[in-house]
Amino acid sequence: MNIKIILGALLTLFVLVTTTNVSALPAFARKNNIKCSSCHTTYPTLTPLGRQFKEAGYRFTGSDVGDATLSDYLQFDKNFPMSLALVSRPYNNSKLGTREIRAIHEGELYAGGEIYKNVSGFLEIEAEGEDGFGLVVTSASITYNQSRVLNIQTGYGPTLMADPYDTYADMRRLTASHYEIMNQTFGGADNADKMRHARQQVSVYGRPLNNLFYYAGVGGLTEDKVGSDSSIYFARLAFDITQNMMVGGMLLKGSCKLSDCTSATQSRDFSRLAIDGQFEIGHFRLTGVYMQAKDDSNTGIQATNNGYYIQAIYHLMENGRPTLVPLLRLETYEKNNGQDKYSLATANITYYFTENVKGFIEYQDTYDAPTGVARDNITTLQAEIVF
What we know:
Porin; 4 helices; 54% strand
């Protein structure tokens, strides 16, 4: 690892970010005239208010701030709620791979909010360098927000895309590296793809009690754009012990039909069972998930692979907003019916120049791997700006 290169890149990031005029807050903050930190503990993780805002269809219930009603059947936002995120990754060095300079790593366009009365929508379009900067819809949804108890959503996006908690939300992680339990195919029966990737889905969610969140739905396999014969169903419960302490669980079961199952010689069933927790005390936040993945193989034998992560974050605050945020994550996952085990540690320190502009340095080390498998470590510098 070349320390001079890292220090030079950090200095470059600091100069670029601090000399850029990014005074406007992202779309929802602009529309409702509130701070980003009202809904985000540290962008993009959510506060209790942020979770309520997401559940209600990206709006504050009972508020018409920023709305323009043109007729009984036509209603728009006065300020169209759209944001752009740019990610720069000027240094990314893998011990087993290559050293990369992704001056612009990716761009993301977000649009969402109330469409008409109780109908809301959300759209995320991404262009990433490793995909040739081609535009890809990574998440899209239309939701009928009948009440806090019942919301009906149709969407294309990650499993549990309507979940307001951060435990399974890979898109709201604070690191360059993904949560491994969401990034693995395990036994491969879910279309040989990753749980963090998008799938077609129809779901209901809500809160029958103030401290109880439920979420249930049906859908297709990951990365199946049309949701053909193969299907899944899922359920999720989360219980708030206090406003800042949650315990919950999730079950996903599915079947990958021979007709459209990637690399299959027969139909295969699979399941993902997990428990999770999210605890915030003062400026300290602890999150974690334990997951058991079961997949039928092409020979009819069921493989079981387990994985977990536990992550600790501390927020240093100034004038009610985050400034310096150190993070440590430990995680383990299995392959080959539990015979191959991998363990990783990720350390990250992020500095928030403003609430919507940040830069970080991250180091990830695979400190345990099966015999004969080389252990990797990755160092990353990254900056993000959200308009």
